[in-house]
Amino acid sequence: MKVLRCRDVGPNCDWVARGATVEEIMQQAGVHANAVHGMTTIPPELAEKVKAAIRDE
């Protein structure tokens, strides 16, 4: 299982995603970024930072 904590990417946010694959986590992160942080697009450099923050649990 893989895990991503929004706090590890930068914002003071307690949201956590869990999934079997990086793609699954990235999908959840995109929905979260839009719904909670108001981001309509994810810049490529932020996407790379998010991918780097995904850890095995």
Q: What's the helix-strand series?
A: EEHHE
Beta-strand fraction estimate: 15-25%
Protein structure class: alpha+beta
Tell me, rounded to a whole number, the average pLDDT: 96
N-end to C-end Cα span: 6 Å
Topology, number of strands: 3
Main beta sheet strand tally, sense and closure: 3 strands, antiparallel
Describe the structure.
This protein is an alpha+beta fold and 57 residues long. The chain has one domain. Helix content is 46%, strand content 18%. It is built from 2 helices and 3 strands; from the N terminus they run ββααβ. Strands 2-1-3 form a 3-stranded antiparallel sheet, with helices on one face. The relative contact order is 0.28.
Can you describe this structure in just a few lines?
The protein is an alpha+beta fold and 57 residues long.
How would you summarize the topology of this molecule?
Elements: E1 2-5, E2 16-19, H1 22-37, H2 44-53, E3 55-56
Antiparallel strand pairs: 1-2, 1-3
Relevant terms:
alpha+beta; 46% helix; 2 helices
